[in-house]
Amino acid sequence: MRLLLHPLLGPVMPGTAFSIAAVLIEYYFGLAPALTVLLAGLCIADFLFVPPYEALGIIDRSDVMFAVSYPLVALVVITLLERLRRAQFRAELIASVAQSRYEMLLRLDNERALARRAVDETHRLLRHLSQHHERFVLIQAIERTSAGAGVAPRQPIGIAPGPRFDDVDPDDIRRFSNALVPGSHRVRLRSANSPVAAQLVDCICERFITHAGDFLVLRIGD
Hints:
One of its GO terms (molecular function) is ATP binding. By secondary structure, the protein is of the alpha+beta class. The protein has helices at residues 2-9, 16-29, 31-48, 61-131, 170-179, and strands spanning 136-147, 150-161, 183-190, 198-210, 213-220. A five-stranded antiparallel beta sheet has the order 2-1-5-4-3, with helices on both faces. A hairpin with a 2-residue loop joins strand 4 and strand 5 (213-220). It starts with a helix and ends with a strand.
C-alpha cells in the first residue's frame, strides 16, 4: 500500500504503514512477531521511501532521523499494547479462577444441603418407626438404576417385614414387592378376631431419602 502511494507521498511518513502493521501483529500474535515486523519495516522503509531511494551505501541525516523516530514511536505503542494485553490476560485469569471457586462453593453448599436433608430424613424415619412400629407392614429399600440416556424408575432391592406383614394377603405382598409407590393403598388384612377372613384396610406408604439409601415404609393408616 505504501509503495503504491509513494509517488503521491514521497518521503513523507515512510514508516507509518509498517508501524501500523507492527501494532496489529502485536495485538493478534504477540511481541516477538511484532518486533520482527518492526525491524523488517525499518530496513524496507529506509531503502524504499527515505531519500536517496534504493541506495544502501549512503547514510545522511534523513536516514538517521528515520532510524531513531520510527522504532521509538513504534516501540512505545507496542509496549503499551503489550502491557494492555498482559493486564487483560491477568483479568481473564482472575475471573476464571473466581468463577471456578464460585462453582466449587456452590457444589459444596449443594452437597451440604443434601447431607443435611439425608440426616433429617433419617431422623424422620427413626421417629416414624418409633411412633408406628406396631402398625408396620413392611419396609422396602429401593434404588435408581440408569437405563440408556434416561433414568429408570426406582427398583426394589429388598423388603424387611414389619409386625403386620404376616397378616397381609400374599397376593398384596407380591403386588407391593414389584409396584409399591408412595401414597394410599387398599390392603387385604386378616384381623386377630378373624384370622381366616380378610378385610380391606387403608394403608399409607411414605418414602424416606436417607444417607443410607431410599426406603418405602408401608403401615396401616390411623
